[in-house]
Specification:
This protein is α+β, with helices and mostly antiparallel strands and about 180 residues long. The chain has a single domain, classed as Ribosomal protein L5 (50s Ribosomal Protein L5, Chain: A). The protein contains four helices and five strands, in the order H-E-H-E-E-H-E-E-H.
């Protein structure tokens, strides 16, 4: 399986990062380690079928079976008991990760209405980047016209090996992530 974004990273991005940040060794250039896609489904407390549908959508989007996440604590105000299913997540690595990022950047994000770019403030202290999406129907694999379709958001976290916020920002930018101008 040929992966376009991985080839671009190896042939173009490493050289540009080495030149821009004066990195001597190409192995010292930061790289994407994994992408974690997480859907929190709070309504699953009352109806488990909602979580099943969200997990099915996440499997279609990522091409990998999601892991069902369960509540760790009981919180009475939210009618939440320990060990109840509350969400699902997928961890993507290697070729499947690059294929997903390629589809996200080039197909899905441009489909968002009035999209002005991703926020630059999504980086944590370790240099990982998290992007929140409010509706999964921006992915072309999801049929938004289906009668049982629900708007469901997701968080996408890009986890890097090596580098800091500035290096990782530039890496994502070179891979095609559209960031806001400000």
């Amino acid at each position: 399986m040929a992966v376009r974004l991985l080839d671009k990273y190896r042939k173009e991005v490493i050289a540009q990062m080495q030149q821009q940040f004066d990195i001597k060794n190409p192995m010292a250039v930061p790289y994407l380690d994994k992408v974690v896609v997480n859907m929190g489904v709070g309504e699953a407390i009352s109806d488990v079928k909602i979580l099943d549908r969200a997990a099915q959508d996440l499997a279609i989007i990522t091409g990998q079976k999601p892991l069902i996440r369960r509540a760790k604590k009981a919180i009475s105000n939210f009618k939440l008991r320990e060990n109840l299913p509350v969400g699902c997540k997928v961890t993507l690595r290697r070729a499947r990760m690059y294929e997903f990022v390629d589809r996200l950047v080039n197909v899905s994000l441009p489909r968002i209405r009035d999209f002005n770019g991703s926020s630059r403030k999504g980086f944590d202290r370790q240099g990982n980047y998290t992007l929140g999406i409010s509706d999964q129907s921006i992915f072309p694999e999801i049929d938004a016209g289906a009668r049982d379709h629900r708007m469901q958001g997701m968080d996408i976290t890009f986890v890097f090996k090596g580098g800091n916020k500035d290096l990782n920002f530039e890496l994502l930018r070179l891979l095609g992530m559209p960031f806001a101008k400000n």
